[in-house]
Structures are given as C-alpha cells and as structure tokens.
C-alpha cells in the first residue's frame, strides 16, 4: 500500500447532489431523442449504393456482400434505429402490400383483411384485456387502411406519426406475445424461461429488438407473408438468408417480405422484380 | 382512437365506473395528464386508518412511457425519495434502463400496464418494501434493523395523514370491505370483461 493518502475527490458526491433516477432517465431519453430526431421512421426509397457508402473504407467482406445483394435487391428503405425496427419494417411492408393496387382484388387481399381483423380475438383469447388493446388494434387497422375514423390518421399518416406508429408497433408486439402464449409448447424450449415471462420481458416492452423467436411467432400470428432476412455479417462466403414461413399456410402462395439484417438492426429490401410504389 | 389523452380519458372512465378498492382517483385541474390519487391505508397493515394523497403524472406518449408517482406529503418509506416524495418502483421504470439493481425485468413498465396495475403494485410495496436499493437509506436501515421503531414512525405518519381524509369518505376498517365490494360490482356489471388469466397476471405481478 502507498503511504500517502489517495487523492481526494474535490467534489465528493452527497446524497443531495445525486440526480434522481427520473432525471437520469430523462437525460438518457433526451440524448436518444436528439440522436434520432432527424431520422425518418421509414425512409424514402434509396438505391443500395447509399448503403455501400456507409461501408466505404470498411471491411472488404461487407462491400463484397453488398455488391452481391445489389444484384437481386437494388432498392431499400432505412428504418429508424430505435429498437422497434423489426416490427416497424414488418408493419410497413405488410401495409405496402395491402395498399398496392395490384393486390386489391386478389384472394390474398381478402384473406389478409380477415386475418388482420381477427387479431383482436387473437389477443383477447390469449388473455389481453379488450379495453387495453382497443386503441392499439384500431390504429393498426387504420394503418392497413382497413378502418377509417374522422380526424384520425390513416395509412401513410400512421407511419409518419410517432404516437400512431408506436401504437401499431405495440399491436404487432401483442400479436407476437399472443401467438407465443397460444402455442407455448412450440416455443418454450427456445425461450430459456417460461413463455409468459419471456413475453413480458422480451416482447411487450417497446424499444426491445426482435430475435428469431419473436420473428417466428409473428409470422405465425399473422400468417400472411414469408420473411426473408439477408444477413450482412462478417462470416466468409456469400451473403446468407434466413427464411421464416407460417406453419399453417401454403407458403408458396404468400408474398415475401425481405429485410436486411445488420447486428441489432433491420431495414427493408426490395427485389428487382417487386412492384415498388413510391 | 389515437392519443395519450384519449387513452387516459378512457382509463379514468373505467376507474370511475369500477373503482379499485382502497383508491380514489380524480383529475388535477381538469388536466388528463395529472391525476390526484388518494390511497386508503390497507386494513391489517401498519397503514390502516391512514389516507395518503399523491400525484400521478403521465407523459405525452403514455402508455409507451411510464407515469411518475409522488406523494403530496413527507412519506417515510425505503422506496420513496425524501426530497420529492417520488416513489421508486420497478414497474414505473422502462426496460433497458437500470436504476434499481437486482430487479427482474418482468416487473418493468410496458404498454400493457395500466393505472390499475401500477396502483396495485404500489399498495403492495407499501407494506413490503424493497430494501435492496432504497431511495431513502435511513428508512431502509431502520426497517431492517429496528422494526419496532420503524413501525412507530409509520404509525405517526398514519396519524398525521388522517387530516387528509375527505369529508365524504368513510374509511373501511375490515379487509372484506376492500375485497368483497369489488366482486359484487363485477357481478352486477354484465359488460365488465373478466378473465382469470389476466387476473393471475395481476396477482403474480403483485407478488413480486
């Protein structure tokens, strides 16, 4: 031990000086809000070249994989990096498919309408209280243009409004939770904890990112699309894809939503032959 | 529907129709984001006979972020800050932030929580403080080291709080008054949606 005293802190913390938990939370939230303020919830369409710019001077493997990806998926939209991006991306793509004039009179569109309207029963039958989910459900249907109420946002407006888009994301989180509880035997082995605990801990709270289990569950809760996820990581070789398809539907007849995954974040990809509407 | 104000308005209506036993809620200055809450000290606890008022403030993006809860007067309790009487309880903390160490994440705020689930958690915290991370260190130490003295201090607080009892309120003295009334109301109201599972969740959250 040194013989001299350690240097004294000129401002020893006292209980009065310590900020309250709320002050700390407010501060963190304000920092986060500042960082996010300029980023749109869902961006305009952009060429993959924009993404490539982010990796200029970065690892060769990323540039190689992006080059390869660009051949089949030349366009993308970036999604706000706020921990809700998977649900936001899913909701947005689902809405785009529903809004698309080309799907308007299709069998898929009719099925989709019925499935989305029945999500209220999906939630109540899994124990969510009707009074609590009503607002989430109504706004979600409005986002999909399946419901209209005077003075309330519909379609694109929902995705542009912070509150309304959060509401829609929350509904998708609850659908995920409801499916996990409804078919708990299927999922529990992957959750590493009782499924109810998993739902409360890793699905219901906002700003928590979705992992494989949540993605599988959402695809089964709303069995209307296949999800294809391009993994942009450092593993050698070509870019690899993860596919998620609903179990009880004929996957071949369903549209595919393609997402780009980089650790902790999802963006939306558009294929060469996809009908992209602005 | 689509705003925090509407959500809060609806919850207030629900709570006026089906009050939670032991609580009174009303708006402060007609502002739907600021509620005045009266807590009747639960019978057969050291808080019996008391009446404590508090303010709940809701953020503009409620229910995506939690409300805050602060008592109006000094409130000696391990989980209440002496400076601003604000309660420190995990259910009012968003997940990801970790101001209380050692707590389980499932007790955190999420958008499926309601005023009711928060109040139920608070009432259970009153008699069962969480001393692992006290907001009031003195209260935490006294609670652990000298329960008799702690209880005496709470009793003093209960006596002081009696001045807050509204003239039109009869303080129930039996536990039955807290429980039975609620069930009767539920039976009378055909519209009231009731689910065993949801009830279990509330109960398990309450157990902490």
TrEMBL record, chain A:
Signal peptide: none annotated. InterPro entries: OTU_dom (IPR003323), Papain-like_cys_pep_sf (IPR038765), Peptidase_C65_otubain (IPR019400), Peptidase_C65_otubain_sub1 (IPR042468), Peptidase_C65_otubain_sub2 (IPR042467). It catalyses: Thiol-dependent hydrolysis of ester, thioester, amide, peptide and isopeptide bonds formed by the C-terminal Gly of ubiquitin (a 76-residue protein attached to proteins as an intracellular targeting signal). It is an enzyme of class 3 (hydrolase). The keyword Protease applies. One of its GO terms (biological process) is protein K48-linked deubiquitination. Residues 1-22 are annotated as: Disordered. Keywords: Hydrolase, Protease, Thiol protease, Ubl conjugation pathway. Residues 1-20 have a biased composition (Basic and acidic residues). CDD domains: Otubain_C65. GO terms for molecular function: cysteine-type deubiquitinase activity; ubiquitin binding. Its EC number is 3.4.19.12. Residues 74-272 form the OTU domain. It holds the Pfam family Peptidase_C65. GO terms for cellular component: nucleus. This is ubiquitinyl hydrolase 1. It comes from Gonapodya prolifera (strain JEL478) (Monoblepharis prolifera). The lineage of its organism: Eukaryota, Fungi, Fungi incertae sedis, Chytridiomycota, Chytridiomycota incertae sedis.
Automatic annotation (TrEMBL), chain B:
SUPFAM superfamilies: UBC-like. Keywords: Ubl conjugation pathway. It comes from the Eukaryota. Pfam families: UQ_con. SMART domains: UBCc (SM00212). InterPro entries: Ub_conjugating_enzyme (IPR050113), UBC (IPR000608), UBQ-conjugating_enzyme/RWD (IPR016135). This is UBC core domain-containing protein. PROSITE patterns: UBC_2. The keyword Transcription regulation does not apply.
